[in-house]
Amino acid sequence: MTQTYYAILTAVGEAKLANATALGTQLQVSRMAVGDGGGALPTPDRLQTALVGEQYRADLNTLQVDPANASQIIAEMVIPETEGGWWLREMGLYDYAGDLIAVSNCPPSYKPQMAEGSGRTQVLRMVLIVSSTAAVQLKIDPSVVLATRAYADGLITVHQAAADPHTQYELRGAVTPLAASATITVAQLGLLLLDANGGDRTFTLPQASAALGVRELVVRRADVSANVLTIAANGTDTLMLDTTAQAAGQAATELLFAGDYLRLRSDGAGKWWCVGQSQLPGSIASGLIAYAATGSYTFTVPPVLRSGRRIATVIVTGGGGPGSSGGGRAGGGAGGTAIKRLSLAGVSSVQVTVGRGGVGLADGGSTEDGFSTSFGAYCSATGGQKGSGGSVNAGGSGGAGVGGDINLSGGDGEDYGGASASGALGGGSYWRGASRGGTIGGASGFNGSGGGGAASGVAGNGGDGLAKIQW
To answer: CB neighbours of 263 closer than 8 A, spacing ≥ 6?
Structure first.
C-alpha cells in the first residue's frame, strides 16, 4: 500500500543537517507553518522552499526525540482557538534562519474560527527520521509558546519526583533528636528536637561563618522537665533576639517549656538571628517582684529574663529623710528614684538592697539621712536628707536616682515656717506625696517619702525605700 501522508527533509534541510553533524554543531529549529495546499492535498517535495498555501506560522511548542524510536524527532506546535477559518493539508519546519528544512502533508482537517460558532485548540506534530538527533536543537521564544496539557503534566511529574526541585531554596533538612549536650553539626541543620530530661543541657550552634553562609535551623524543646536547656552561640558568635535592649546580641539563650522553639538564621558573619519563636504563655511572659521591706536580698533571675526572651524594668527608690522637731520643725527630703530597662540575659542572680528611712527624734534634729536602695551595680537611688533643726531650720534635700534610663530626684522637705507654723511637710517620693507636719509629732513617710517636721514631740520617720522588678 502506497504511503499517502509523510514528512521529508528538504534539500536545504538535508544539507544543513549534514553540515551540523560533520562539524559537531546543531541545527536550530524554531518554527512551524501550516497551509491548505492551495485547495488540494499536496505531495511533499524535497526542492520546496515554501508551503503551497501557508495560512499560519508560530514558534514550536516542543522538539524532542521520539521515546519509542531514538532516530526520530517529534516537532509540536499548538494553534490557539482564536486562529482558523482554513483547511489543514500541509506542514513545514523552519530553522532559526527562516529556511524551510522539512515539509509534510497531513489528513485534511478544517480549523474553525470562533466567529463561525465553533473553535478548538489544535495540536500538530511532525515526525522526522534523521541521521543524528543530537544535531537538532529547538530554538524558540518561550514567551509566545503554548503548552499542551500532556506537556504540562509531564513537567509536573518530573518536578514532583525530583529530590530538590527548587535549588534556589534551602532544603528543610533532617529531623534530629538530641538528648546529650553537643555542638550541632552542619549536617544536622533542619529541625532539632532537644531533650533535657536527663539534666541541664547545652547545645552549641555551628559557627556562623562565611563558609556556612545563610542557613536556617529550628530548635525545639521536647521534654517537660524543669532542667535548664541552653542554646549557645559558638565562640565569639552572638545570638540576636531582642536587639532593642541588647544591640550587640547575647552569647546564649534558653528554651523554657515543652514545645518552645526558636527559628534561627545565620548571616555568615558571626550572628544567628531569631526569625521566629514560640508565643510565651502568660505565666512565663510577665511577672512582678517587689521588695518593700528594708534589708538585703538575692533576686534569682527568672528563666525568661535569664534567657533574654524578655526584658526587665527595674525601679528603685531610696529611703526618705526624717523630719526635725522643736524649734526647727523642718521636713525630711524624699528618696530619689532610678528607672531602668535592662537585659538580664545570662545573669543568674542580682543582689538587691532596700534602704531604710531615717528615724525622727524628739525636740531636735535627726542624726541620720535616708539610706540608698540599689539593684546590683545596674542602678541605685540615694536616700533623702534629714530635716535640719536648731538654728538651721532647713528642709532636707531629696535623694537622686543613679544609673537609670530615667533618674528622678526626691522632693525636698519643707523649711521651718516661723513660730506660727504647726509643722513642716516631708518631701514627696515617686510613689507617695508629702507627709504632713504637726504641732505635736510629725507624720512618718511611706515608700521613700520624707518624714514631717513637728513643733514638738517626735518628728516623722522617713519612709523606707522600695525596689520593683517587672517584665
So the answer is: 216, 217, 218, 274, 275, 276, 277
Q: How buried is residue 116: exposed, middle or buried, by Cβ count under 10 Å (0-12/13-18/19+)? A: exposed
Residues 218 and 244 sit within 8 Å (Cβ to Cβ) = no
Q: Going by DSSP bridges, is the β-strand pair 312-317/337-342 parallel, antiparallel, or unpaired?
A: antiparallel
Place of cell 544535531: 135
120 membership: H or E segment, kind and range: none
d(CA 391, CA 414): 15
Contacts of 39 (CB under 8 A, 6+ apart): 53, 87
Gap between the Cα atoms of 246 and 172, Å rounded: 30
Tell me which residue has cell 553562609.
Answer: 213
Coil vs helix vs strand at 21: helix
Cβ atoms of 48 and 80 closer than 8 Å? no
Q: Angle at Cα 416 formed by Cα 413 and Cα 422, nearest 5°?
A: 105
CA-to-CA distance for 31 and 13, rounded, in angstroms?
14
- Other C-beta atoms within 10 Å of 382: how many? 27
DSSP state of 220: E
Query: Rounded to whole angstroms, how far apart are CA atoms 27 and 13?
Result: 9
User: Which structural domains are found in the chain, ordered by start?
Assistant: 7-161 (no CATH), 174-277 (2.60.120), 282-471 (no CATH)
Q: How far apart are CA 240 and CA 261, in angstroms?
A: 15
Using an 8 Å Cβ cutoff, are 355 and 320 in contact?
no
In the chain the first and final C-alpha atoms are separated, in Å, by: 93
Per DSSP, the residues of 201-232 read EEEEPPP--TTT-S-EEEEEE---SSS-EEEE
CA distances from 441 to 66, 363, 396 (A): 111, 9, 17
Tens digit of pLDDT per residue, the chain (471 long)?
A: 478 898 899 999 889 888 888 888 888 888 999 999 999 999 999 999 999 999 999 998 888 888 888 888 888 989 998 899 999 999 999 999 999 999 999 999 999 988 888 888 888 888 888 765 565 654 444 444 555 666 667 778 877 777 667 766 665 678 999 999 999 999 999 999 999 999 999 999 999 999 999 999 999 999 999 999 999 999 999 999 877 767 889 999 999 999 999 999 999 999 999 999 999 998 899 999 999 999 999 999 999 999 999 999 999 999 999 998 876 678 999 999 999 999 999 999 999 999 999 998 876 656 799 999 999 999 999 999 998 865 567 899 999 999 999 999 999 999 876 554 567 889 999 999 887 776 677 789 999 999 998 877 888 999 999 999 999
DSSP 37: G
Could you tell me which of 440, 429, 463, 438 has the C-alpha nearest to residue 359? 463
